Each structure stands twice: as structure tokens, then as C-alpha cells.
Amino acid sequence: MRPSGRKTDQMRKVTFERGVSKHAEGSCLVKFGDTHVLCTASLEDKTPPWLRNSGKGWVTAEYGMLPRATGDRMKREAASGKQGGRTLEIQRLIGRSLRAVVDLEALGERQITVDCDVIQADGGTRTASITGGWIALRDCLKWMETRGMIKMDRVLKDHVAAISCGIFANQPVIDLDYLEDSSAETDANFVMTGAGGIVEIQGTAEGKPFSEEEFATLMGLAKAGIADLVTLQKEAVSA
Amino acid sequence: MRPSGRKTDQMRKVTFERGVSKHAEGSCLVKFGDTHVLCTASLEDKTPPWLRNSGKGWVTAEYGMLPRATGDRMKREAASGKQGGRTLEIQRLIGRSLRAVVDLEALGERQITVDCDVIQADGGTRTASITGGWIALRDCLKWMETRGMIKMDRVLKDHVAAISCGIFANQPVIDLDYLEDSSAETDANFVMTGAGGIVEIQGTAEGKPFSEEEFATLMGLAKAGIADLVTLQKEAVSA
Amino acid sequence: MRPSGRKTDQMRKVTFERGVSKHAEGSCLVKFGDTHVLCTASLEDKTPPWLRNSGKGWVTAEYGMLPRATGDRMKREAASGKQGGRTLEIQRLIGRSLRAVVDLEALGERQITVDCDVIQADGGTRTASITGGWIALRDCLKWMETRGMIKMDRVLKDHVAAISCGIFANQPVIDLDYLEDSSAETDANFVMTGAGGIVEIQGTAEGKPFSEEEFATLMGLAKAGIADLVTLQKEAVSA
Amino acid sequence: MRPSGRKTDQMRKVTFERGVSKHAEGSCLVKFGDTHVLCTASLEDKTPPWLRNSGKGWVTAEYGMLPRATGDRMKREAASGKQGGRTLEIQRLIGRSLRAVVDLEALGERQITVDCDVIQADGGTRTASITGGWIALRDCLKWMETRGMIKMDRVLKDHVAAISCGIFANQPVIDLDYLEDSSAETDANFVMTGAGGIVEIQGTAEGKPFSEEEFATLMGLAKAGIADLVTLQKEAVSA
Amino acid sequence: MRPSGRKTDQMRKVTFERGVSKHAEGSCLVKFGDTHVLCTASLEDKTPPWLRNSGKGWVTAEYGMLPRATGDRMKREAASGKQGGRTLEIQRLIGRSLRAVVDLEALGERQITVDCDVIQADGGTRTASITGGWIALRDCLKWMETRGMIKMDRVLKDHVAAISCGIFANQPVIDLDYLEDSSAETDANFVMTGAGGIVEIQGTAEGKPFSEEEFATLMGLAKAGIADLVTLQKEAVSA
Amino acid sequence: MRPSGRKTDQMRKVTFERGVSKHAEGSCLVKFGDTHVLCTASLEDKTPPWLRNSGKGWVTAEYGMLPRATGDRMKREAASGKQGGRTLEIQRLIGRSLRAVVDLEALGERQITVDCDVIQADGGTRTASITGGWIALRDCLKWMETRGMIKMDRVLKDHVAAISCGIFANQPVIDLDYLEDSSAETDANFVMTGAGGIVEIQGTAEGKPFSEEEFATLMGLAKAGIADLVTLQKEAVSA
């Protein structure tokens, strides 16, 4: 039995609230149950130095957590004077995942920064960030299309979404919340495209090692879940 | 004429949404028009080193802005490796303002940190932070009272709220939004208690110096506005 | 009774020693009693990036304290790896105050940095810095005038000086020394021009809130004190 | 054809040179072809704060690259003032991988730090670090056993080793060198135990997404390769 | 001919002004011509961690330069976020030099920090710091003796003073000022005790290497100069 | 008697292994007994900003120690966030020493960075770094000559090598190992050219001051030792 009473293949309720920022070119408040992440996409006219005069643009991501997004207050990273390893690891993952579905040449010499700020955390913040970040990025590209800067469909090649799966109490389950995550034996994050291609896989044995079969089961759960997330993304952007 | 069409003594619509955080002992999403600040109050059982074994507690504040809370994306302070002077100045102000209405001995050897994170900025983020921070602090103290840790009324001596006033287009006005703030000749922030005592005054001539009379007019506007804010706080916490 | 035996409206002995630096374009050792601040004005031919090609110059300030300027030795900020919030707050105030009397267009695309380094502290270091910083700035501009770079009177529009006032032992007093400052109920800093215009007001209740009347009394003390400081500045620069 | 002329399932020559450090309790210079990593295991008598009085110990890892380990000289991280995201990500991975085969209670309240310093890089530094780090860790535990501090076999539960696989020129290949790594379409790192359990999987599409089948092929390559690495580890420690 | 007209073996006018700080236990403003260094000695009741419960105390030094102590304004190290290599090197030298004449056991478990802050620089700031730092340290120890904490003569075993010598325009000269220092072929700093023992020697060829004979000449100049400095120290502390 | 059984004027076995790096333009693993330093010389086509358009190049050095190069593991400087004073002091010394034998104009507008990374430490790491760094630098210049970029003999004017001497157990000895170094009364480092010119002298009394005569004895030892090192360098590069 899962603490939340969910079935093993049942994700939490996922919602996307678009256009939540007065300023950002694209924005989305994504909720996976009690995990709430505010995603904004910001367009800048300059690229990173290594792309200057290459004709190509860049999509990058930054990730942060409000200090009391979690059960115990965490030290503010701005006050600590540096971003921790976990933060850097997650924002690199978000950036890679979003770039996997973007044609950087079609974007042109511009940079889009997707900020994913966790307002409230209950497990799965990185997968929510990717899934909601795609909406913010898409709406930023739409904003650009409206102004004749690009063709959105040429820049954005596909959907991308992510989900965590894990082995909790000897059962493979999808979309772990904090209670499950903190005692799971194995924890894996999957990032896939709308077409079902795999963009990123990260699996970690927290306690005892896992087998190839267990991993295949987790991947099966993830495929189904991500297909559902992509459907929800489609509904959200067609609204 | 103000850009928003407001009258010179008319504040923006102010709302408090309490209990927005699943984790924090007290929390409040405060809105002054398009300025939105998420305030959380976090209780910790230890005090800063200089108060150890003093029998006294501490209330402190931290302030941050999401990178795209503003019209142009700002560099994330965690990535820069330090909090800027403006950030430090504001969070010192919030902390002082809240402590002005707290009996630190009655609180006992505990620390409450009030985090004020600007989700969206449109001028007046520091005054919104103080005004909403009071709600979060109060609800944290209520939470403690419910657990028999303190008597809320012995710790929290009064309300505290804040408003900005300024001279815009030669007119003294209250509660400047970003458009007004960025071209105001004079900008002043007032922090007062429910009883009308002054906790903090900060007035700055952005362009030409101002006179004692002008300053008195701003203070008059502020007194009326803060009285209204205290009324709204009372309604919010009695709901 | 004040610890120093001074009358409530009596400032400490204020002196300006000009030209104390062999290198700086303008310099002044200012003393407010036992508070000694070395102010140097340094001219550079380049402006900050945001003013490039604007035709305007900039005046900025930096503030520091020698580690043993105070009763207990403080950690050296260079060794700590960052300037504290108090330092940043004070140097922002000094910069704003000096810019209030400078015509940045008449200055041309140059930057003047006024360094205020506290050699010995006994309360009132920020107000001494502003008051003495004006002398250093003025002498730097004079140096420039001598070389045909500017007309000093077109760049420097007025005097600016500052003083602290506070309520100590229930009495409004001017120019608090450290003993008074550390136990004052209310502490306010005023920055005004030679013409009597207000540039900056900062009032803080350290203990109980203060009233509008009390604040008006403090402002009255400040006006008289600053008028005296401006007279002393005039004597100093005419010497 | 692979640039090195290797077969798709052929690893580079792997060697372990044990006891290379005069000072460290365990040490190993591991070479995967031209990738050379110096691994040292250092025993300390204290644990991290969060384990104090828990009866448990800790194994952690740090990772670094000499500035000219790579084709172009990289900026020294000590001079930059911080470890980059890639460094932090890798050292977290090494630490987790080694802890997966350690019984922290049997270790007792001690910490072992495994430093993995890349002397020369040619792809696969993180997998070499894990594989060689296990040798250094094992020899440190042996050192402790010799002094009657622990029973090595009770602390060290199994071997752990790692290998990268990827899709290069449309072919799944094992143990990518730098030339392959920098143009691979997909890159995956596998960490497994001697018993064949999976400890960590990280797969990333560098260009187009990959399929479940492709991933299964990579895992098959990895299983065989890691089995070989474990055999080599066994030979090395029995020497 | 030296730019200053001095003879090759002629030091600049050296003066010590004692007791210049209201707060420090010992203080001295030392001038070597236009090089002015403010030295303060601060007593603290705790030692560095590595001496705790050893019965021994510690003497350490910190060194800083005001930003406009030099011909061109230097960036403030507190603003840069770190002390440069030159600063660290100099303060380590000052600390070693002073400790060479202190009996740390006789001092007892206390730390004295000697801060040397360069108010104005014209070459030779490190040697002035050592020479003046000795006065500040001695007066701090006298302060302690007066309070019955130590016997000064048991703690302070001898004088220590320092001077620079160099080869300028093919001539060995003593006490180089900035003009000489910046074009000297060889630059050497000598630290010696009152008894003539050598504490520290640092010689550097700026251009072409120097010979053993040249170095011996510089040492001869230094011995005479330091003897004079010790005489001046004796006069200063007997005043 | 020396702990190692060496005679007072006997250096440890010194070896140079050239070409140890696949990537660097010049490299050398230098060993002075158990002190092992990996030196790499990296060529870059740009100079530091202050030499731009000067026609001159630059040679600089960086120094680091692997965390477990020493008997007790030291904190990794990259993790600490800064290079310590000792590190900065040593790398400044290495850079100055190498530049003493380089004609920067003949080098042209290029920079060579010599990285000296201590793999294992047993005293004398800075002198080994200079002596081995010269080999790496020379081989980098040879690499450039082969490509027609420079004439090596016009850029590299002479050999440079370094050795430590000290007074251990009342005996002047050469090439101190860690055991000697940590209890020596006096420690001196000498840097000299092939022609016997002195480039740098650093002598420090660790305990009681030393005399001019003692220092002369140390210099005598150093001259003989450095002459031997230069002979070894010549043999190494002619191999």
C-alpha cells in the first residue's frame, strides 16, 4: 500500500496553470500533487559566448527551491554563496532535456532561460520542472511566433516530459511523493519525448542493487505515465 | 494622473492568502496589485549564537526575488554567489520591523525566520513583505500557542505594516507601482504599528531634494494607508 | 545627562583636514569627536558600463572599517570574503547622498569613487563619511577644474552634509556617540543640502516605536546641526 | 569502425597499480587506456556531523582533474573558487556507488574519503574512478583489518565497477574514448556490483532520443564489460 | 643618483607615533617617508583551535591597503571577495617576523592580532609594517603587564625590525621608495632582531640574476639600517 | 645524523621523466626522493590583458597539491573555494623563477602556463616544481621550435633550478625532506641559473634567528647542489 493510497501505476493529479507571470514570455505553474513548481521562460537576444556568430541559439535552465519549500527549512543558496551539487545536477538535467526537443539553428542566435523555482516540494521536483518547463518554453516560442521571430513548429520538434518511478516496499510504483522517495530502495527518473524516444534515464539504488528486470518494469511504468503527461500537455496548450 | 488611474491616496488592492504552504508553521501570499510575495515563517528550536542561554529568542527575515519576477530577467543570486546590497538592506529592514512588535523574552530561546520571496514584482516589494510577513509570523505564533509553547498575545505585542509613498509628477501619492517608482522624484517607505507608532522611516530624494512639508504630506498619506492595512490584517486573521 | 556631558543640541567637535593623501585627487580626514574617517576621491576616466556613451559620469562611494576601529576587533571583510549588509547599506547611502548634489552630465564620462575608511569609530561613521566625503569630492573637482577638465560650480550644485539624531534617555539629542547610539531608543540619520533640502532620512525605532512629534523634534535638531556642518565645510574649503 | 580500431564490445586495456601513495591507507592508479586516475582512500576518525553518535560510518568521494589532463588546458577549480556542476555530479556518483557495497554500521564511526584525481583524461573518467576507487577503498579496509579495527569482509559486501557505453556512428559500443564520447549520439554509464546487481544507470541522448531496444543493447554490453572489470579487480587484489 | 637625492645608505625619515588608537591595546602609526602604516595590536582571550589546551598563545598579523593608498586606486579586497596573493604573502611574513621574538608559552593561551593597514604607500610597506608592528605589539604586552597578566620582558625576547635593500641604477641602496622599487634590478627584504640575528631574508632578481657579492653588500646595508631602526624603536618606547 | 642517513651535502635521488602527458606541449614528472611533482607546460595564443599589443609574451605558473599528497589528508582547495596563502606564495615564486630565464619579447604574444601538481609530498615541493618546471617549459619551447614558431635558444636564456637548505640538528644540510623540514631551525630556498646567478633567496628562521655565517654556509651548499641539478637537467633534455 502506498502512503497516499494511490495504485502502483497511478500518478498524482497533474495540473498546468499557464500565463501566471505578468513579465515572462512564457510561464507555467505546474503541480504534481503537493509539488508545485513555477516555470518561467525568459528570452534574451544574446547567446552564450561559445555560440556567438554560429547562427545557433541556446536553451538553458536554472533551478531553485524556496527555503521553506521543504519540511525543514533549508539554508537559502544565495546566502550560502553557492548552489549545491544537487541544484547544479538538476538544472543541467532540465536544460539537456528541453534542448533535446529544440532545433537550436531554427531558434537563431537567442537564448531562452527556463527558471524552475520550487514553491512547495513533495517529491519529484525535477520531473515536474521538466514537464512544466516544456509548457513555459512552448509559450515563449509561441510569443516569438506571434511577433514573427520564428516558426514555433520548426523550433520545437516534440513534447518532452518526465516522471520518477521507484521500488517502494518491494513494489514498483510511479511518481513517488516525498514519503515514498525517502524510503524507496530504488529511484529512477525518465525523460521521454512525445514520440516515445528516451532522452534521459537516471536510476539509483538507494539501498540494495536492483536487477535488469526491475529496471524494465520501472521503464514500463514510466512510458505509460509520460504518455499521459504528454496528453495533459497537449490539452493544456490547446486551451 | 497616475498611470494606473488610481487616486493619489488610493492603494492597490491588497489581499492576504493564508496557509498557502503545506510545510511552514505560518505562511501568507500577499498581493499589492501585481506585486506578489510569498511569506513563510519557520520555527527553529535554536537561537543565534549571541543569544544562547539568554532566555531570549530571535525573529529574522530573508528576502529574495525569483529571477523573472521583474520585467527583465535578473541574475539568480545563488548563481552569482552572493546576495546584493539591495537584498541585504531589505531583509534587514523586514527583520527589524517584525522584531519591533515581538517580545523576544516571551518567545523564549527559539528563532523564527520569515522568508519573503517575491514571485512577481511591480513596486513596493519590501512593504508588501513586511505587511504579509506579519501575517505569516502571527500564524506561526498561533501554531505555537496551539501546541502550548507560548501565549501568542504575550509574544506579539501589536500589528506592523508598511507602505511606500512618493512624489510622482509633482504629486504626493501612496503605494507606488513600478512605473511610478522608477520615475518618482522622492520615494519613502514607512513602517508603523497598529497603535500608530513609527517603527521605521526611509525617505530618499531620487532627483531634487525634498522639503520638510513634502515629507509631512507623505507621512500623512502613509498613516492613513497603514491604518487601512492593519484593518485588512485584522480581517485576514479573524477569517 | 549625556555621557559626554554635551547639551542635547550640541554636536561633537568637527574638523576637516584636507589634502591628507599624497595620491588622491581630493582627500579629507574628517573627525566628529573620536570618530575619524579618511575620505579620498579618486578620478577615473571610465564610467560604469550602463553609462557608456551616455555623456554622463558617475559618483560612487565605498565604505570600510579598519578591523580595530571599534572597541572589539572585527573580522576583516577582505578575509571574510564579502562585505556585510551594513557596509553595503552605508556605501549605497553615501553614494546616493553625494550624487544628489552633482550634475552628472556636467561631470562628463568619468567616474569619481569616494572611499570612506573609518580609522576610528565612536558612533556616526556614516554621517561623518558623507560630510567629509563632500570635501574630498569637492577638492577632486577643484583639481579637475585646475586642469581645465570641468567647471567645478557647474558640476557641484550644492553642499551636502549629514548628522544623526536620536532619543537617548527619553531626550532627543544630536550627534550620538557610540555609548548613546548603543542604547538609544530611536536613531535617525538625516542628509541635507546647503539649501536645506532633504536628501535622505532614515529613522529606526530600536526599542519602542516613536511618534510623529518625536520625529519632528529630531528633524529640527538635524536641520540646525547640518546648517552648522555646512558652515564648517565652507570654512574648510575657503582655507 | 571505431577510431581506435577496437571492436564494438572491446574495452580499452585496463590496469590497476596498487600502493602508489606513500601516505594513503589505500591507493590505486587506474588506467583505462589513456585515461589515468589516481585514487587514494584516506581514513579519518570522525564522521560527518549528521552521523555523530549513530554508530555508523561514512564513505565519500571527491573528484578533480589536473588542469592539463585534457586536450585544452582547463581553468583550475581551486583558482575559480568553486567546483563546477560536472565535478560535483561526478563525485556524488562515485560516493553513492562505493557506499552501495559498504556496510556503514560495520565500518563504525569513521569516514573514508576516496579522492579520484584525473592525471590524464581520454573519456570515461568517472567510470575509471569508480572502478579504481573500489581498489583504493578495499586496500584501506585491508589496512584497517591488519590493525584489528574491522573485519574487511563484513564492511565490504561486494565489488563495484563501472563502464560507459554509447551509440557511436549508429553502433552500440563499450568504453568510449574521448573521440567517440564527443560525437556519440547516446552516452550511458552503468555501475554494477560483482553479483551483477545494478547500482546506478545514467543514459543521455546527446542528439536524437534513443529507444528502449538500443538501451537494452547498451546494458548488455555493460554487463559483460563490468563482469570483466570485476575479474580484473579480483586479480589485482589477489596479487 | 637616487630620485629622492638620498645617499645609497640613507634611509628615509622614520617616525613612530604611539597610542594613536582609542580602542587598541597597542597601536602605532609608523612612517618611512611617505609610506604610512597604522599598526594596532588586539588582544583576544582565545587561541587558534590547534593551540587549545596547549598552554601556548599566538601572535598573528593581518595586512591591508586602503584603496587609494597607491598612485592608482586599487580594487578594495573586501569587494573583490578575497585577499590577493601579495596580501597573504605579506601578512604571513609579518606574523612570522613578530613571532620570532615572542615566547608563546610565556604569553599564555591568548592571541594577539597585529593589523597593519597601509594608509599611504610609497614603497617598503611590509618592512614598515614589521618595524611599526613591533611597537604596537610591545605596547599591547605593556598593557597586559600593567594588568598583571604577564611579564612583558618574559614574553618579548628582543626587538625585530625590517628594511628593504636593492640594486637601483647599478648601485646597492637601502630603503627603496616606490620610484626606485618599480625599476630596481634586485629587491631584498631583511628582517633582523635587536641582537643582529636574521629572522627572514627575501631576495628577488627583478631583471637579471644577482651575484653572491651583490647580495652580501645588500645584507651589509640592511644590518646597519636595522640597527638604526632598533635604536629608533628604543627611543620611541622609552618616550 | 639525518633521518634518511644522507650526508649533509647529499641531495636525494633526483629524476626527470619527460613527455608524461599525452596532451601538454611539454611535461615532466620530477622526483626528489619521495617528493613527486607533475609539471605540464601549456601554450595559449593569448597573453594576459596588460600585455596585449605589447609584442611580449608571458610565462606563469600554478601550483596545487592532491589532497592526500601529504601524511594527513588536506582539504581540497577547489572545495574550500580558494587557494591558500601558501599555494599563492609558491606559485608566484615558480612563475618569477621561470620568467627569470625567459626572453618574453622573443616568446611573442603568447602565454605558457606551467602547472606544478604535487602527486606526493615529502618536503621541497616548491624547489622540485621549479627544477622540473624548467624541463616542461623547455620541452614546450622545443615543441614550438619544431613548428617554426620560435627559436628555443632565443627564448630560453639559461637553466634555472632550485634547492632548499636548512639547519637541522645544528647542522647545515641540503635538500630537506619532510622530517627534517618540520623540525629545522632555519629553512632557506635558493633559486639559481645555470650560470650561477641568483634569482631568488628566501630564508626563514623557524626557531631562533640565524647568523650571516650560517646563511653563507647554506648558500654554499645550495650553489653546489644547484650546479648538480643543472647537470641533471642537461642530461635529461639531451636524452
TrEMBL record, chains A, B, C, D, E, F:
InterPro entries for the chain: ExoRNase_PH_dom1, ExoRNase_PH_dom2, ExoRNase_PH_dom2_sf, PNPase/RNase_PH_dom_sf, Ribosomal_Su5_D2-typ_SF, RNase_PH, RNase_PH_bac-type, RNase_PH_CS
Pfam family, one: RNase_PH_C
Catalysed reactions, semicolon-separated: tRNA(n+1) + phosphate = tRNA(n) + a ribonucleoside 5'-diphosphate
Record keyword Repeat present: no
GO molecular function: tRNA nucleotidyltransferase activity
Source organism superkingdom: Bacteria
Binding sites annotated in the UniProt record for phosphate: R86, G124, T125, R126
Keywords, alphabetical: Nucleotidyltransferase, RNA-binding, rRNA processing, Transferase, tRNA processing, tRNA-binding
UniProt EC number: 2.7.7.56
Principal EC category: transferase
Coiled coil: none
Exoribonuclease phosphorolytic domain ranges (all copies): 10-140, 160-224
Family label: Belongs to the RNase PH family.
Function: Phosphorolytic 3'-5' exoribonuclease that plays an important role in tRNA 3'-end maturation. Removes nucleotide residues following the 3'-CCA terminus of tRNAs; can also add nucleotides to the ends of RNA molecules by using nucleoside diphosphates as substrates, but this may not be physiologically important. Probably plays a role in initiation of 16S rRNA degradation (leading to ribosome degradation) during starvation.
Quaternary structure (record): Homohexameric ring arranged as a trimer of dimers.
HAMAP family: RNase_PH
NCBIfam families per UniProt: RNasePH
Protein name, as recorded: Ribonuclease PH
Organism: Rhizobium aquaticum
Biological classification of the source: Bacteria, Pseudomonadati, Pseudomonadota, Alphaproteobacteria, Hyphomicrobiales
Gene: rph
